[in-house]
Amino acid sequence: MPGFVEFKTFTAEDGERVSIVVFDGIDSHNRWRDHPDHRAAQRRGRESLYDEYRIAVSEVFRERTFTNPGSRSRD
């Protein structure tokens, strides 16, 4: 999907799951949201996978990254 950056999923011990989907901008996100294949997948999820879910669309206003200069890659 053009504009797609990354996808990550985290699952808690109780089974609750959080997925983070990152796009390069709101226009790319909206194209994905409205894509017929994605709409069909959402419909299948509502019918057979989920009792409930919540979607939050957010914008990053500030981001910071820390890299320990003493750490090394472990290959």
Task: Set down the secondary structure blueprint.
Elements: E1 4-11, E2 17-23, H1 26-34, H2 36-48
From the structure above, extract its key features.
single chain, 75 residues, alpha+beta, two-stranded antiparallel ribbon, 2 helices, 29% helix
Protein described:
Helices cover 29% and strands 20% of the residues. 0% of the residues are buried. The chain has one domain (1-65). The chain contains two helices and two strands, in the order ββαα. The chain is extended. The chain is of the alpha+beta class. A two-stranded antiparallel ribbon has the order 1-2.
What's the short story on this structure?
With 75 residues, this protein is an alpha+beta fold.
Distance between the termini: 31 Å
Computed CA radius of gyration, to the nearest angstrom: 17 Å
Q: Enumerate how many helices there are, as a single number.
A: 2
Described by strand count, sense and barrel closure, the largest sheet is:
2 strands, antiparallel
Shape category = extended
- The count of DSSP E runs of length 2 or more, i.e. the number of strands, is 2
In terms of quaternary structure, the protein is single chain
Low-confidence stretches: none
Structural class: alpha+beta
